[in-house]
Amino acid sequence: MSHIAIKVENVSKLYRLGQVGTGTLKNDLNRFWHKVRGKEDPYLKIGQTNDRTKKAESEFAWALKDINFEVKQGEALGIIGRNGAGKSTLLKILSKITSPTTGQIHINGRIASLLEVGTGFHPELSGKENIFMNGAILGMKKWEIQQKFDEIVDFAGVEAYVDTPVKRYSSGMIVRLGFAVAAHLEPEILIVDEVLAVGDAEFQKKCIGKMQDVSTNQGRTVLFVSHNMPSIKSLCSTAIILDNGHISQTGDVDEVVKKYLSINLEKTYGDIVYVSNKHRRARYTREIEFISVSLQEALYENCYATNLPIKLKAVLKSNLILKKFRVSGSIYSEDSTRIGVFFSNHIEQPVKEGEEISIMIEIVSHNLAKGNYYFSLSLGNGDESTGNVEYDIIYEVIGFKITHKNDINTPIVKWNSDFGSISFQANCKKIDAE
Amino acid sequence: MQQENNQNNSDWTEIIKPQKSLFDLRLKDVWNYKDLLFMFVKRDFVANYKQTILGPLWFIIQPVLTTLMYTIVFGNFAKISTNGQPKILFYLAGVTIWNYFSDTFNRTSSVFTSNANIFGKVYFPRLIVPLSIIVSGLIRFSIQFTLFMSFLIYYLTQSNEIVHPNVYILLTPLLLLLMAGLALGAGMIISSMTTKYRDFTYLVSFGVTLLMYATPVIYPIEFLPQKYKNIIMLNPLSGIVETFRYAWLGTGSFSWQLLGYSSCFVIMLLMFGIIIFNKVEKNFMDTV
Questions:
Q1: A342 at the B interface (CB within 8 A)?
Q2: Rounded Cα–Cα distance for residues A60 and A45 (Å)
Q3: Measured distance CA(A151)–CA(A210) in Å, rounded
Q4: Which of A408, B112, B196, B224 is the most buried (most CB within 10 A)?
Q5: Residue A295 in contact with residue A311, Cβ under 8 Å?
Q6: Would you say the ipTM is above 0.95?
């Protein structure tokens, strides 16, 4: 029977919204007075969720509400969720930086949390001194650091700079050094929060590898928060989704990740999508803008086949007199990986101000494999020689599916989720030997 | 079933709960992190004087200049009595012991706000930081004390028995302990309050200066009219500074009552400080 490393029971965390410091002395005294008399906190309204899109009714919000889960020893648990879902708060509570408002957490084993790399680095101190400083902050004993010093320096790849003040380091070197120290901690439980987002690809790979080693080969427990689904999938065996401070899904990592991505995509499927500002990520000049987008000539619903073109109709409105424009777009797979980009030819028909026009985009011979995808689209003008201008960009606007069912060449094997996103067309024939 | 649950409870290495008892200091935890304490002390010294030419000499220059200034302004201009003692020695004694308090207090009173970035990312017993300030202050003190000693020895060899170090110098460690306790206690209270109300930062910066004038640092306590003397005696620092000067210079007065009062005050303040600090350290990240 495997033992439980972390047991979280009914943990909730209440945060105060707005400013903390203005005119609160009165409220604090009032609150204190209620507390002394054993009465309920007058400023605390129970039962509010932390939905940040709506205006809060009270000054307080639950960042976490009734969280319950268990992590077994040697298990790697991924925690996913949108920004503000409460992931970081949960990690902060687990690493004793702040305490829960209610509930209890039982922990079995030494815990080390890596919410940031290089905490406590002092710019004036040398790399060597900072290794000792950072190690001590993370709870290592001096002899432990001494023992692993060479390994740490080696992992970070900063041999030549050990005696140089850290302020002369490049930012990449600082991050590498920080992670190297943390990676050589030997806690029973390791908590990691998106620190990998900072390094380059090679370094990220190294980190994931190190964490995999820690969890599978050394049998330690790992809690990992990330927005990067591939790294969650490669590192963790189970996962939970946090949504507005609740756990909305828990279980096997593949299922949970799939569920999480489909929550995000649900909004983008549909017959016709009317474009609104939620699709835009900035204020664009919008000389010409998207009004609506719809899929055309799908096999059924929003399904296309690998060998058939994907057709997309867009209704546009011009706000100026435009001589010409072009459409470009990206196709993303379900896990937010950009599969590819297309640029249309310029449409050289002048449009009048205020005129609405429809265009048809046809993506031919895409060879996309079975799976779920979505579009981001852009209206622009110009090419490499003249320079590009983008008038309007809409993200994650409409999704579609690719099926193999209508394929002329019936697929020989069942398409696996880890086969990738492109189904290459290959011919094979016998040739005469020379 | 209940029995089993209890047994299980003792198996956990750690239980995180919303509240903990007021006096749970986790001293064992502090002991485990003692290496960190020394790292902080070391960082203080190394980092402070990197890229300075004079380096640690600044520890000495600062009290020397202060003493010179006091000698000129208070001694020569204002002609405040130094009880027949050499002015430089009189002021230096005051400055040396006072600096230990003011440095330590100043720095402990901003522990939470100035370390928020570290505290927000990693757990370690927060008490480590104020303790490290006490220790690094002690090192500074010993450097400045050496300076004081050299002046003392000079006057002892030079002149005709104005300076009389006596057996009370054995109390010096106790005096330092009291100073440390006072700075730690008051510093912890202030730093806990500053997490919510920044007003205290302003209060501290001139408060310390004002407090110095309310402590017999630049004047002997006998020099005061009786009604002021009583007020000044209420200041727990007075007993400590007076005793220090009495022990090393043989000037002024010594009373066990005054020192006893200071000690009681320090113990109370320290307990109060620890309670508040303990309460605040758990959730200060939410308000800082």
A1: no
A2: 7
A3: 13
A4: B112
A5: yes
A6: no
DSSP per-residue codes, A52-92: TTSPPSSSEEEEEEEEEEEEETT-EEEEEE-TTSSHHHHHH
CB A238 within 8 A of CB A72: no
CB contact under 8 A, B35 and A165: no
In this structure, is residue B280 part of a structural domain? yes
DSSP string, A362-376: EE-S--BPSEEEEEE
In this prediction, residue B279 carries a pLDDT of 82
pLDDT in the model for residue A406: 53
Tell whether B72 is covered by a domain. yes
* Coarse DSSP helix, strand, coil percentages of chain A, rounded to the nearest 5 percent: 25, 35, 40
**Is residue B119 a contact partner of residue A96, using CB atoms and an 8 Å limit?**
no
Helices A127-137 and A171-183 cross at an angle (nearest 10°) of 50
Tokens 């899929």 found at? A295
What's the confidence (pLDDT) of residue A411? 56
A214-270 pLDDT, tens digit per residue, is 888 888 888 998 887 878 888 888 999 988 888 888 989 888 888 887 766 554 455
Chain B residue with Cα closest to A188? B13
> Could you report the per-residue pLDDT of A362-379, keeping only the tens digit for each?
998 888 888 888 899 999
Give the architecture (CATH level 2) of A272-419.
Distorted Sandwich (2.70)
SS3 B1: coil
Give the pLDDT score at B130. Answer: 93
Instruction: List pLDDT tens digits, range A116-164.
Output: 777 788 888 889 999 999 888 888 888 989 999 999 999 888 888 999 9
Domain boundaries, chain A: 272-419
Angle, vertex CA B91, rays to CA B85 and CA B93, nearest 5: 90
The alpha carbon of residue B140 is apart from the nearest alpha carbon of chain A, in Å, by 20
Domain carrying residue B231: 47-287
Residues of A in contact with B43 (CB under 8 A): 122, 125, 129, 133
d(CA A301, CA A294): 11
Tally of CB atoms within 10 A around A8:
22
Q: How far is A223 from chain B (nearest CA, A)?
A: 15
Considering only residues 268 to 307 of chain A, which have any Cβ-Cβ distance to chain B shorter than 8 Å?
none
The fraction of chain A above a pLDDT of 90, given in percent, is: 10
Higher pLDDT, A40 or A7: A7
Task: Please answer whether residues B217 and B241 qualify as being in contact, where contact means their C-beta atoms are separated by less than 8 angstroms.
Answer: yes
Average pLDDT score over residue span A407-420: 64
Amino acid at B60: I
- Is B196 an 8 Å CB contact of chain A? yes
- Biggest alpha carbon–alpha carbon distance for chain A: 99
How many domains would you assign to chain B? 1
pLDDT of residue B21: 65
d(CA A269, CA A369) in angstroms, rounded, equals: 18
Q: Look-up: residue for tokens 């400590």?
A: B240
SS3 of residue B257 by DSSP: helix
B32 in any annotated domain: no
The C-alpha atoms of residue A427 and residue B89 are separated, in whole angstroms, by 99
